[in-house]
Amino acid sequence: MRGCWAGVVCRSAGLPGNPSLGARGGRYLSVLIYMLRRLVQSIPVLLAVTLIAFSLIHLVPGDPVRVMLGVRATEEAIAILREQLGLDQPLPIQYLNFLIHAARLDFGTSLTLRTAIGPLIAARAKNSISLLLYSVTVSLLIAVPLAVLAAVRRNRPADHLVRLFTTITFAMPAFWTALILVLVFSLKFRLFPTSGLGEGLAGYVLSLTLPSITIGFYLAPVLLRSLRASLIETLSAEFIEAARARGLSETRVLFKHVLRNSLIAMITVLGVNVGFLISGAVVIENVFSIPGMGSLMVTSIIARDYPVVVALTLVFGVAVVFVNLLVDLSYALLDPRIRL
Amino acid sequence: MRKLLLVVIASLMLMALLLSACAPATPAARPATEEPTTEEPAAEQPTTEEPATTEPAAEGPRQGGSLVMARDSEPLSLNPIGDGSADNGSIFMIVQIFDTLVETRDDPLPQPALAESWSVSDDSLTWTFNLRQGVRFSNGDPVTCEDVKYSIDGFADPEVNTFYSGFGSAIESTECVDESTFVVQLNRVEGAFLDYLSTMPASIRPMAIYEELGSDAFSENPVGSGPFMVREWVRGERLVLERNPYYWKEGQPYLDEITILYVPDENTRMLMIESGEAQIATEVPYSQIERIDALDGVTVLIEDVMAWDAVWFNSRIPPLDDRNVIQALNYATPKEAMLESLLYGAGEIANHVIAKVKYWDPSVEPYPYDLERAQELMAASSVPDGFTMPCLIVAGDQVERQQAEILQQEWAKIGVQLEIEAVDISTIWERWTSGEEMCFTYPGSGLSSDALSDDNLAVVFFDFTGGADSFWTGWNNERAIELVRQAGTTIDEDERRAAFYELQRLVMAEYPAVPLFFIKARTAIADNVMGFQTLPVKWWNLEEVWLSE
């Protein structure tokens, strides 16, 4: 296996030259080792990211103590509050403190919210991830069938209609789309709540539906275009002609061979967008009053809540690394020619 | 494939149909439960003129029920004192959970709360409070004089009372003479002392619990003697308050439960009251007041509060030290027109540089719009050819941006080139308090008085020695300093009024600012919500709210 790091582990695991473990076992192990290797490689990246975030947020003008005190910002009050919040220590010490605690998963206390940051982020992460998963599902449900349709009926009315429709939804600004959806489906038809998160599983899913559709209106066109282009390219490949010549049904050709070979480009695009949406769904979160990580980041930056900003940056960094890892793993899954 | 195509086309057409069908004008018919008449949908009720307060059924307050309030801000902390609670999001909730010795209502003077009565010594330095007996915290523990002393001592300690240390700074010592008598010794005469005791940081906390939990944990698990207690708090989403069974006001609170939802987007907030998901929605956007008020079953209350909007200048930077320039800017501002176009009439032209607090003199004239006069003043000033002035505004606020653009246009007519610099809230405070900026304005809803009397604002804005350089305008006026001191060192109402009246005239004539409007509270409430009122301090006594049928 190429790229076998930590030779001892590989040898004892029965890789190159030892067939006793079998191909399957060897494959699982190589995946595991690959993941571990990637995670270790990501540590310097995450360190750099937190250092940059920490530096930037401190370099930018603005003082959380002054924001909190507002009109009452007398010099005396400022001094007392700075000391109580630990902001009077030199910056490198503050950063080191953060790192030491973060290694133990203790992210400290928010300056403005006076509560532990770990649970705070965890609660928000749950909402952001749920919204993300739901949005991706909706987007795929829209994009994949439509892309197949558009590719198969290339340059015919169906294709034009699909591309026109998705261009329109892509161009509509998110907050406008959100409001229209709410006006129609919440106010007029009373199918969904106008905002907030619902109670219980059913309520929760219901309340995330309109936000997910709003995100889907932006994400589906992006996925669709990429998939359509790949499909068109694959459809004209020689092995597809060969498959048809062998007498395989059109449906089988389409879904088993064409689609599977065209997904890679779309998955790359999906990965990039997911990385963005983890923090970037701020407008949606705001309009629908969903407490997610994006809005927490925005309010923390505005209030200069340093520990929250740096902790969130770390979480986003880990999320992006993880998503990239998943995307790379999926390549290996989809295309046997690709080795990890 | 053909079938798939047909399905796709059909759904697209359906979508187009639905989108075109949603003409925004017709509001959704409200569920017919509220209508006292039959089940006729409330399509055309042209003259439902009755304002929410004159209720048809004179049955008196009804016990029970729960309501939902959609609010524009959320509590950061529920601890009345300490590091996190100086924002209105927190304050307005804390006052529902805790009590103070005296409370603020719609009255110029604080009213008895945990203190039934009080007396003051002849030298005005010793205040004796008779504590109400039989009051309990929401966990059943009795409120003792020890708790009161603990709380007021904390209020007086700048290390504990980090945000409002000025309010408690006159307190020298406190003593529990007996279980029902609490004595406070001041180190100087303080005219606004009772008002300061009615503010949120002077809330009475249970000593044992506070000591055990510490300030951060107490914020997560607050225990007070106020009308409500916390049932559930999900940050970023909602705060659910339920009735405090031990509350000392007979029969109150009327409601069993109030859910306060955090809905930062103003459109979404209005949609919630429109759909009936919320019965109260705060901060109605000016442009939507008329539309929301016209909805069936909803009224928009516009109430006077102690908030205001103005533009401040740094008198340490020329030519802003020239009185002619300041007055010219005032005369060149078309406030009447701005009131209509910016605030849709829901405001009042300001005749004071601070809010309408207790000692406000309505007879003082605001600056009228007089472009000629403005031009004359500029010609006579140190900069007859005009000058350029960068001005800080808060980014992201529609009204602020529009207001700044109007001022930019109007002041250009007298040769003043305004350069709008929109920055975020942290940056704006940092830059303005550095004393190096020329001009600054802040959203009207963001500046309000925390106490019933003018002192807390006067000290910050008009007293150069008050710790904030006259709100960083650098205005150093001996007479103003003297008047603030005079008003603050007596408890005689007439003397205080006289001093503040004179101060108002003085600042209108000489203070480096353009006062614009007194801001009003705009709240949308459902017609079955009774007893709701926004107090001048901007919060509400939610124990008085009840639902009719």
Question: Can you walk through the features of this model?
Answer:
The complex is a heterodimer of chains A (340) and B (549). Chain A has 340 residues and is mainly α. Chain A is built from 14 helices and no strands. In chain A, helix 8 (174-188) crosses helix 9. Chain A is globular, with a radius of gyration of 25 Å. The N and C termini of chain A lie close together (9 Å). Mean pLDDT of chain A is 85; it is low at 1-19. Chain B is of the alpha+beta class. Helices cover 31% and strands 21% of the residues of chain B. Chain B has 17 helices and 19 strands. Chain B has helices at residues 2-21, 88-97, 145-156, 165-168, 193-197, 207-220, 266-275, 289-294, 323-331, 335-343, 371-379, 398-412, 425-432, 455-462, 469-472, 478-488, 493-510; strands at residues 66-71, 102-103, 111-112, 115-120, 126-131, 171-178, 181-186, 228-234, 238-243, 257-262, 280-281, 298-313, 347-349, 387-394, 416-423, 439-441, 513-526, 529-530, 546-547. In chain B, strands 1, 8, 9, 10, 11, 12, 13, 14, 15, 16 and 17 form an 11-stranded mixed beta sheet that branches. In chain B, helix 14 packs antiparallel against helix 16 and helix 16 runs antiparallel to helix 17 (493-510). The longest helix of chain B has 20 residues, at 2-21. Chain B is globular and about 70 Å long. Chain B starts with a helix and ends with a strand. Chains A and B meet through helix 3, helix 4, helix 6, helix 7 and helix 8 of A and helix 1, helix 6, helix 7 and helix 13 of B.
In summary, what is this structure?
The complex is a heterodimer of chains A (340) and B (549). By secondary structure, chain A is mainly α. Chain A starts with 6 loop residues before the first helix and ends in a 6-residue tail after the last helix.
